[in-house]
Amino acid sequence: MTATSARTALLVGSTGLIGGQLLTKLLHSPYYDKVIVLTRRPSRHTNTKLTEVIFDFDNPDAPQIKADDIFCCLGTTIKKAGSKEAFKKVDLEYPLTIATLAQRNGAEKFLIVSAMGADADSGIFYNQVKGQVEQGLISLKYPSLHIFRPSLLLGEREETRLGEKVGEVLATVFKPIMFGPLKKYRAIDSGKVANAMLAFAKKSEKGVFIHNSAELQAF
């Protein structure tokens, strides 16, 4: 697929740390003629390529979930969601619903932000849910599935989370010694993850690809 071919991207999670940066990159990329965003509220973006769809994730309208490439940056915290059940809805149920409906509508590629440590058998609830969504996506057998597992994300968030802010400070302090086996734990700038998602979306390889944080540092 060349950059001049008519191609549509669909993004969910455009208001998050990675999603916000990815949206800007998608809108400026000549690879896509159209960018659809499923959102609960409109953004400040004004771009002729952008189509914003006010979307009810609990009652999805299947025809609206139609594009060549699907980018999923959905994610929350248990504290923000209010319960483990609500967290699971956002981080597991919504992505799988979007992926399933998009595939039925002809989507060829699905790219999702997961997390380092994702494992359906993990004793840590967060990692367990991330592992479950990965398993669910793999079972859909997309022609091309890219799973991104970043470490602690660095970047300006709309809301301040004390634990993450402390983590960012510690990540900066310990960065000089994070080499060799420790490199994969090094904090990563959210912009690099967004860059990687766009870069891999342009590739034509088929199959399931899991991109770990150390690999993403190159972007």
Descriptive account of the structure:
The structure is a single chain. The protein is α/β, with parallel strands linked by helices and 219 residues long. It has a single domain (8-212), classed as Rossmann fold, CATH 3.40.50.720. The chain contains seven helices and nine strands; from the N terminus they run βαβββααβαββαβαβα. The protein has helices spanning 17-28, 78-81, 84-104, 125-139, 162-174, 190-201, 213-216, and strands at 8-12, 34-39, 50-54, 69-72, 109-113, 144-149, 153-154, 188-189, 207-212. The strands form two sheets. Strands 3-2-1-4-5-6-9 form a seven-stranded parallel β-sheet, with helices on both faces. It has a two-stranded parallel sheet with strand order 7-8. α4 links the parallel β5 and β6. α1 (17-28) crosses α6 and α3 packs parallel to α4. It is globular, with a radius of gyration of 17 Å. It starts with 7 loop residues before the first strand and ends with a helix.
